[in-house]
Specification:
single chain, alpha+beta, eight-stranded antiparallel beta barrel, five-stranded parallel beta sheet, 33% strand, ATP_grasp_subdomain_1, biotin
Length: 666
């Protein structure tokens, strides 16, 4: 029995909401968005035909409120709801509530969500279905002592995983019995905060595994297929950083074996819709990890190699139609790679960043490149939600071409206002081991020195471009200040004029702790800049968007310099560099340092205080735990000392840089 969908409500936000609406509109459907107070002006709201408010910014008061979403569906006349990923996408109660309200849930039945929603129960089901499993404990008894004994039985290292979730939340690698109690408590807190369920499972931690997942699809007529596989091995803190399809080195025989196991897993729970069966592989063996009963973040790479629109498949299956293709008819063409551009600071242990995107350029225009995003330049990355800015997806005739296009796409990406992982992603894309497809889940740890090198001083090219940008801006301002009644006034045409001397201007830049003096000598066609490395002839034109067409000692190049206050961000040759302009016209340029202070690494909530006032602590001891974006960040003692004053209590909200406590010498 088929039921035509006419109005689709997307119960999500950000890039996935925008992406789902794109396909829905292509199919002629009316689209409805929901939004929290923080998202009133978000891109997904602007992309919908209608949008309804559902509550305050915190997700638990808006995007996780089943009643508010169903009320919006009723008011808008929506006959179907697409949950996207995250939030309520794997919530069986939500799927049931939609069914009871007479609304089509564009996803699997509640029974399948429930069966796979508990990692422990899912593994028991898979064992019965003959799907291979990693050795571990998946039981209901959550006594800490029992879990510790099971970890000893399995053998360290072990992996603690939240039973009800994914995305790296509630996941801890434990390498010894001594570490286990604290790691367990932290995993349980994260799991409770992210999923409302603190149950965990314990598994053997494989040392050099690959993470390979299989995209499955099933309809309500008993048909089930797999749309090949994705390699998601490059991870950080168990969160995927790079995803690609097909998996490098995959043979047709192994693809068929993993595909069959994935389809068997889906059939074991009466699955309908899009799902992903995740495996961990080492050597010749592969093991079931979990099944995600939703569309995955990385689904675009599968769309690229198959030429299929997976959201369109979801909608057709939800309407009761047969799968669009049989197994033998599913194409596999070329290679695709996806990276996730995040607002996070690699130099500060990848701390998530919040704030305004002052400048955002994404590589929509490049051949073989797709960008999925939910933000625009000027938008704000909020503390309340995942800090992903965009997904950048490239495709090519083969992996070599896709890797080249990934490098080009990242080189063309520009973000100012927040620290991002762009340079880190580009370091992965250009690393020889990545080019050689030497992939496993330890890739980042193994190549950390190359991927996260210490900051280097800016070179003369960057300084020359920064100076040219300032000089062009000063010239424009001078021209605007000239009396319009006397456009030929020499006072508006004599920058840097000196009586009986060479016309010049002195500029000062700061590069972290280093101050750099640059003298610009004016010439008819440009400038001679005195730089740390010697003199350089510089000329060029600047556009309103910060683009520079420059010649440096005769070498022509294009760059962009974006100024925000005193800070200049220089984008050139695929790199990005920051310098401060010390403007002598400002009375002062105070800098506030945090050296030696115990401050909040980012805005968040105090969830644990591990010490008391007057307590003596050793260097490295945990002092305060701050939770932000569903992740925990521990502030540790930088030296031996005594806690003099605690500034906050558990449950308090803190801003980035807020002093948490005072530590004095013991």
């Amino acid at each position: 029995m088929t039921r035509a969908i006419r109005t689709l409500l997307v119960a999500n936000r950000g890039e996935i909401a925008v992406r789902v609406m794109r396909t829905a509109k292509a199919l002629g459907l009316r689209t409805v968005a929901v939004y929290s107070q923080a998202d009133a002006h978000a891109l997904h709201v602007a992309s919908a035909d209608e949008a309804y408010p559902i509550g305050p910014a915190p997700a638990r008061e808006s995007y996780l409120r089943i009643d508010a979403i169903l009320d919006a569906a009723r008011k808008s006349g929506a006959d179907a709801i697409h949950p996207g990923y995250g939030f309520l996408s794997e919530n069986a109660a939500f799927a049931e509530a939609c069914e009871q309200a007479g609304i089509v849930f564009v996803g699997p039945p509640a029974s399948a969500i429930r069966a796979m929603g508990s990692k422990s129960a899912a593994k028991a089901l898979m064992e019965k279905a003959g799907v291979p499993l990693v050795p571990g404990y998946h039981g209901e008894d959550q006594d800490p002592g029992l879990l510790a004994r099971e970890a000893e039985r399995i053998g360290f290292p072990v992996l603690i995983k939240a039973s009800a979730g994914g995305g790296g939340k509630g996941m801890k690698v434990v390498r010894s019995a001594e570490e286990f109690p604290d790691a367990l408590a932290s995993a349980q807190r994260e799991a409770k905060g992210a999923f409302g369920d603190d149950r965990v499972l314990v598994e053997k931690y494989l040392t050099t595994p690959r993470h390979i997942e299989v995209q499955v699809f099933a309809d309500s007529h008993g048909n089930a297929v797999y749309l090949h596989e994705r390699d998601c091995s490059i991870q950080r803190r168990h969160q995927k950083v790079v995803e690609e399809a097909p998996a490098p080195g995959m043979t047709p025989e192994r693809r068929a074996a993993m595909g069959k196991a994935a389809v068997d897993a889906a059939k074991a729970v009466g699955y309908v819709g899009a799902g992903t069966v995740e495996f961990i592989a080492e050597g010749e063996h592969f093991y079931f990890m979990e099944m995600n009963t939703r569309l995955q973040v990385e689904h675009p790479v599968t769309e690229s190699i198959t030429g299929q629109d997976l959201v369109e498949w979801q909608i057709k299956v939800a309407q009761g139609e047969n799968l669009p293709l049989a197994q033998a008819d599913i194409p596999l063409k070329g290679h695709a790679i996806e990276v996730r551009l995040y607002a996070e600071d690699p130099a500060r242990d990848f701390l998530p960043q919040v704030g305004r995107l002052d400048h955002l350029v994404l590589p929509f225009h490049l051949q073989g490149t797709r960008v999925d995003t939910g933000v625009r330049s000027g938008d704000t990355v909020s503390i309340h939600y995942d800090p992903m800015i965009a997904k950048i997806i490239v495709s090519g005739a083969d992996r070599t071409e896709a890797v080249r296009r990934l490098d080009a796409a990242l080189a063309a990406t520009e973000v100012v206002g927040l620290a991002t992982n762009r340079v880190f992603l580009k370091a992965i894309a250009t690393h020889p081991a990545f080019a050689a497809a030497e992939l496993d889940t330890n890739f980042i740890a193994r190549h950390q020195d190359a991927l996260l090198p210490p900051p280097q001083p800016v070179d003369d090219t960057v300084l020359a471009l920064a100076a040219l940008s300032i000089l062009k801006e000063e010239a424009r301002q001078s021209a605007e200040a000239v009396d319009a009644s006397d456009p030929w006034s020499p006072w508006g045409l004599a920058p840097g004029w000196r009586l009986n001397r060479d016309a010049h201007v002195d500029l000062t830049f700061a590069d972290r702790e280093r101050r750099i003096a640059v003298r610009a000598h004016f010439r008819p066609s440009g400038f001679i800049l005195s730089l740390p490395g010697g003199d350089m002839s510089v000329e060029g034109d600047a556009e309103a968007d910060g683009t520079l067409r420059a010649r440096l000692d005769g070498v022509a190049l294009s760059a962009r310099v974006i100024r925000t206050g005193a800070h200049l961000t220089v984008f050139v040759r695929g790199g990005e560099y920051g310098v401060e302009f010390i403007d002598p016209r400002l009375a002062s340029q105070a800098a506030t340092g945090t050296a030696g202070r115990l401050v909040a690494p980012m805005p968040g909530t105090i969830i644990r205080i591990a010490v008391e006032e007057g307590q003596e602590v050793a260097k490295g001891a945990a002092l305060v735990v701050v939770e932000a974006m569903k992740m925990e960040h521990t502030v540790a003692a930088p030296r031996d000392g005594r806690v003099k004053t605690l500034k906050f209590a558990v449950g308090d909200l803190v801003d980035e840089g807020a002093e948490l406590l005072v530590l004095e010498d013991a």
